[in-house]
Amino acid sequence: MLKKLRLTAAILCLAGFCLLFVDVSGALAPRLAFLAKMQLGPAILSGSLIVIPGIFAATILFGRLYCSTLCPLGILQDAVSRLGKRRFGHAPAKTALRLGTLALFVLAFFAGIPLVFGLLEPYSAFGRIATDVLAPLWQAGSNLLALASERAENFAVGPTPVWQKGAPALAAALATIAVVGTPAIRSGRSWCNCLCPVGTILGFLARFALLKPRINAERCVHCGLCAQQCKAACIDDKQGEVDASRCVACFNCLQACKNGAIRYGLPLGGNKKKIDPGRRDFLASLSFGAVAPHTLRRDMAAEEKIPALARKTPPPRAVPIAPPGARSLRSFQQRCTGCQLCVAACPNQVLKASGGAMTLMLQPSLSFERGYCRVNCVTCSSVCPTGAIAPISGAEKSVTQLGRAILDRSLCINETTKERCNACARNCPPGALNLIAQSDGALRLAIDAERCTGCGACEYVCPTRPRAAIWVEGNLEQRRV
């Protein structure tokens, strides 16, 4: 029964995470964002005083259930491990490797190095896989369904644009699959118990867990069935011991044991190992917090869409454009782990992995080849789990300057031809662009830098190719206009 409950919870959680990243409609992402905020890595970055104590207290009570029911990368490893051998066996703990990786993770956190933190943090690793591999496949499948429906004269299902957000991001996602998936096929939860810093942190707490698998020495016949089914390789059947720091509470061992010698519960007489007398003092020092998911709502007013134009190449921006609510580029880069949840959730398709070498091109920035940042859209700020994009209202966003428009007059149609073009001025939401008639009848564009919000509508609609004549340069500090 315990295994069935754990499997049900894990499947529901993984399904929720997949829908969070591949949501085609854009309606589910804000409502499922609480799943991302319940992850330990994002909670540490956001300084959550509810999630962090809640996860720690749950680990002290139940062991590493977080790793087997709430961590999407851990659940994904369980699914991948079914492709390989189903017998594992005991393996010694790689303590030096675990502590070394944890030390690197902690140093990166305090030094403000998002590249290292984001590569090691399990939720962010899953986010890259979901955004750059799973989402395009999901969208392609949706388009096949739309095509089949259209041929059946049923137009209820519409096509969805398939957009892979850049080759570097895809390469990072495929590398993550290789690094995490290959050991999972061969030996189960190798990533969790060798390299995952979150698993190492929770493993230390799990040593003191009240409820955990325990072997009854009087009933155990040392047949090794429990060790063969242990994906964490933490059961030493010869010694009759379970390494609680590596156990992820999958309950496979309970089902495998034919003699009832292994159970999940409190310590009782007949066990070889006695309870640590200092455990109760350790438990008393922790405060119990309930992880309270918050359902987020999105209220976006209907707005006339700017028609799509032919594909264009992005300009070489000197400063990338941070998402609205990031406050400053430096703060955003220090907090963002590159999970790309905001990229997946953006309904306007203006967020994609940036080209910064120090961020391994994983942290997102705004780009306006496919749309512009609409005034009343705050989806990215509502789903960010780390606080890199702080919550912001539509009214506050409308007066926040993300960047400033720059005009290259050598490319502008009004400057280089006798044709008249007012696409940028006509579609500028804050009205920061104006065309001034010259004495010879030509039009000359003037930019009001104090009113420009950097939404990118001008860059999106500019008809010049291959690069827009007007584009947005990011601000190091976002400010009110």
Describe, in plain words, how this protein is organized in 3D.
With 481 residues, the chain is mainly alpha-helical. It has helices at 2-22, 29-37, 40-46, 51-62, 65-69, 72-81, 95-111, 114-120, 122-151, 167-187, 190-194, 197-206, 225-228, 252-256, 279-284, 329-335, 341-345, 379-383, 394-398, 413-416, 423-427, 457-461, and strands at residues 212-215, 235-236, 241-242, 262-265, 351-353, 364-366, 400-407, 433-437, 443-447, 470-480. Strands 1-4 form a two-stranded antiparallel sheet. Strands 2-3 form a two-stranded antiparallel ribbon. Strands 5-6 form a two-stranded antiparallel sheet. Strand 2 (235-236) and strand 3 (241-242) form a beta hairpin. Helix 7 packs across helix 8 (114-120). The longest helix is centred in the first third of the chain and has 30 residues, at 122-151. The N and C termini lie far apart (59 Å).
